[in-house]
Write a structure and sequence with these properties.
There is one protein chain. Helix content is about 40%, strand content about 20%. The protein is α+β, with helices and mostly antiparallel strands. The protein folds into two domains: about 250 residues, BirA Bifunctional Protein, domain 2 (2-Layer Sandwich), CATH 3.30.930; about 100 residues, Anticodon-binding domain (Rossmann fold, 3-Layer(aba) Sandwich). Strands 1-5-6-11-10-9-7-8 form an eight-stranded mixed sheet, with helices on both faces. Strand 9 and strand 10 form a beta hairpin. It starts with 6 loop residues before the first helix and ends in an 8-residue tail after the last helix. The site of histidyl-adenosine monophosphate (HAM) has 25 residues, from strand 6, strand 10, strand 11 and helix 11.
Length: about 425
């Protein structure tokens, strides 16, 4: 778990969040903020009891009443719970939500893998239309475009078919692998036993080799699932969103069916999935709501941000003004002006520490001020202030009552970052 404290990184995070919000809100999504703790059973029933997330990675705790809680390992289950609780219970049968916040998984830490990580997630309820899948994917693509990352990520697409298709495929895969599993490690064999489809994600060389000849999920799709998958691909092609079909994508959460997808950033190393999602048509019903299809995805913030060089942001164009009072009275006079100067759009700091001009100017430079306003007894007697251009090291005296208008005339027009 990490602190986010470096100013340029904080800015980068805020910028990424802002861009993603803009894209999603323009597409009719509303933000949903759910608690970071839920009943542990919520995730067991949705993510799945035999997944790594639930079996090995969930932070669980008991509250004082003996209730079993969990820090959320992902956002979808919470959003479905909230949707059922506050929307479908009022007969609202559709919705588009996004969320932003920390998730918790007790994973083995490594580059790009944290025990607390942030996601920006989206969920659409109420439609099983394949073009909704394509629309949602296009919004993920748009976010990458807005961040200047669309060349760095690759979209991989698959279909898991219905649960029935998946069951048939699971049997066929088990059957096939039972002949070769003796070459696998203990861990891979265990995985094969508990959650056979996850074997497709294994990085083990022996497993990968055996999988080359293994049956593909795409051979097991029902006609309906196949048509759905073709329509999703048609939509993406129409929108000119590049993708690759990868039948090995199975996802580590049990609720998916039909369309699943991941955005991979090859530059990221081993943990290269920047965003992932898919369709989950049974989950709303499984969590106590009506039968309502749904689809969503989540972006991993740490991985996403690590793809963006901080210089991309450039300097914040807001003018930085440092107020330098040289006696007690000036402290008060400039203190009084703070609000007005900020209202005018400047980033203003007032230096109340000590009275030495030299140390105050040093601090102004360190703070990267564009302008310094100096006021002491001499200036007061003349009813002026010293107006110093820090970048050009030039200064002039101006009438004290013209300070605000002079400052305003110096402000660059605020341009949008990037
Ligand atoms: P997920 O694939 O488990 O899906 O996570 C989505 C993204 O979160 C990953 O692609 C990755 O970028 C990031 N992520 C996951 N674990 C970590 C970690 N330990 N450290 C850093 N980043 C991580 C879900 O969570 C689904 N709820 C997505 C979804 C939404 N499906 C439908 N709707």
């Amino acid at each position: 778990m990490e602190d986010l404290y470096r100013p340029e990184l904080v800015k980068l995070w805020q910028w990424v969040e802002g861009r993603a919000r803009n894209v999603l809100e323009a597409a009719g999504f509303q933000e949903l903020r759910t608690p970071v703790v839920e009943d542990a059973s919520l995730f067991e029933r949705s993510v799945g009891e035999h997944t790594d997330i639930v079996e090995k990675e969930m932070y669980t705790l008991e509250d004082r009443n003996g209730k079993r809680l969990a820090l959320r390992p992902e956002g979808t289950a919470s959003v479905v719970r909230a949707f059922v609780e506050h929307f479908t219970s009022h007969n609202i049968q559709e919705g588009r939500f996004y969320y932003l916040g920390p998730m918790y998984r007790y994973e083995r830490p490594q580059k790009g893998r944290y025990r607390q990580f942030y996601q920006i997630g989206t969920e659409i309820f109420g439609s099983d239309h394949p073009l909704v899948d394509a629309e949602l994917i296009s919004l993920g693509h748009k976010i990458f475009q807005e961040l200047g990352l669309d060349d760095q990520v690759k979209l991989q697409l698959n279909s898991l078919g219905s649960h029935a298709c998946r069951d048939k495929y699971r049997d066929a895969l088990k059957d096939y692998l039972s002949k070769v599993e003796k070459n696998f490690s203990e861990e891979a064999r265990e995985r094969l036993k508990r959650n056979p489809l996850r074997i497709l994600d294994s990085k083990e060389a022996a497993v990968q080799e055996s999988l080359e000849q293994a049956p593909s999920i795409l051979e097991f799709l029902s006609d309906e699932a196949k048509t759905h998958f073709e329509e999703v691909q048609w939509g993406l092609k129409e929108l000119e969103i590049p993708f690759e079909v990868n039948p090995r994508i199975v996802r580590g959460l049990d609720y998916y069916e039909k369309t699943v997808f991941e955005w991979i950033a090859p530059g990221l190393g081993a943990q290269n999935a920047v965003a992932a999602g898919g369709r989950y048509n049974d989950l709303v019903k499984d969590l106590g709501g009506p039968e309502l299809p749904a689809v969503g995805f989540a972006l991993g913030m740490e991985r996403l941000v690590s793809l963006i060089p901080p210089e991309r942001l450039g300097r914040d164009p807001t003018p930085r003004v440092y107020l330098v009072p040289l006696d007690a009275e000036a402290n008060r006079e400039l203190f009084f002006q703070l609000g007005e100067l900020r209202q005018a759009g400047a980033l203003v700091m007032l230096d109340l520490e000590g009275n030495s001009l030299k140390s105050k100017m040093r601090r102004a430079a360190k703070w990267n001020a564009d302008w310094a306003i100096i006021l002491g007894p001499e200036e007061r007697a003349k009813k002026v202030v010293v107006f110093r251009n820090m970048k050009e090291s030039s200064q002039e005296e101006i009438p004290a009552d013209e300070l605000l208008s002079r400052l305003l005339s110096k402000f660059p027009t605020k341009s949008f970052i990037l």
